[in-house]
Fold this protein.
Amino acid sequence: MRLSALYEARFAETIKRTAEVADGISDLKFTDAYRVPFQYSRVVRRHLKSAAFVQSSAGVMLTDLDGNHFYDLTGSYGVNLLGNDFYKDTIARAVGRVGELGPVLGPYHPVIADNVARLKEISGLDEVSFHMSGTEAVMQAVRLARYHTQRSHLVRFCGAYHGWWGDVQPGIGNPVPARETYTLKEMSDDALRVLRTRRDVACVLINPLQALHPNAPPPTDASLVDGARSAHFDKKAYTDWLKCLRAVCTEQNIVLIFDEVFVGFRLAMGGAQEYFGTRADLVTYGKTLGGGLPVGVLCGRKHLMKRFRDDRPADICFARGTFNSHPYVMAAMNEFLRYLDTPRARETYRDLEQTWNVRARQLNERLRDEALPVEVANMSSIWTVGYLRPSRYNWMLQFYLRAELLALSWIGTGRLIFSLNYTDADFQAVADRFVAAARAMEQDGWWWHPPAATNTSIKRRVLKEMIAHRLSANGNRATAR
């Protein structure tokens, strides 16, 4: 109960305000319920209450309603690439640039012309369309691929996230089956064989973030029932895979789509195409490209971006949106894109990969030196936490990290996202707090486990508990009737 008492004292006002709005925000209800495995959700919500509010940001810090200063490891779901102060300034300048026009929709503000030119140069592609979210950009990419190939199916790979619309989210989270989707194993010769033999495949979707954990879903502490979560980034292996995939797609006239909504501009100025040395037919961007405002962008080859046929005027590929090309978004985007052309930006990207690899290695060395059963894996500034003991309670680490004032997103230790304005001193402070959190969790006994326990035995026990819970619930419903 020590940790529970600490939360109640340290985060009192923030927890209170969160509780006041919890019944009215469905998103908050969902994320609160799925921070930890379901067996523990009710107990955790009672004793380690969530605190969803922050008051301000500065540098790499967030401040909550109680005046606590957190190091920001949430990354605003990937939006925060260059630091919150950068985006605050970007939005302010954007409003000043287009304020005379205001939120006029339909006609374009002239700033859009420079955005198009810059995006064509960055992507190496011919045309651009603007959308309101990354999900919409992916939807349009798939629709155009189907339209021009006159084939029905898209291919996605196991675990990859491409937004929340039905065709790219089969299984959990989608109330209806995805009927025109093939889900294949990534980095597999069998997948290439399927692409060579099927005649109904319109496109292949790649989320380059999967290189950190191929064929596994986005890591979240809600599914962390044991210590089996693992991640490892092998740049050469993934580069080789993409080149093979590119060759097969070219051979079979399949549209290759890079979904760079998350990783675009985080790995390199030219995105994943530059980083992995492979060119796609269509590329989607989003998140940070909006300069802090909502956006989705699709770049593509000229023949794939066309939405109508000259000889069949009724045969069109429709895609519109009220807020597409919103003047404020276009101006904020332009501020971001222009920044990429500055010496300061080029310096930021120089040795970017080495900087974050060294930081991850240093933290892992400290954890090993203290015999703490945890490690980190990274793909540049995107990190995930792995566990070295078969414990049912690894998910508790997220609460110890928050107690050390490290701000995490609702998926906990599954994803730590650093902004590129972290200095060595900032990172050292984060590493100190991370080690302190792991040390406290070890001392409190959460990593104790029976000598004979394995990840397999833990999973079997959890499965039995789930079956027993389901049978008990069914029995109670039958009794009630």
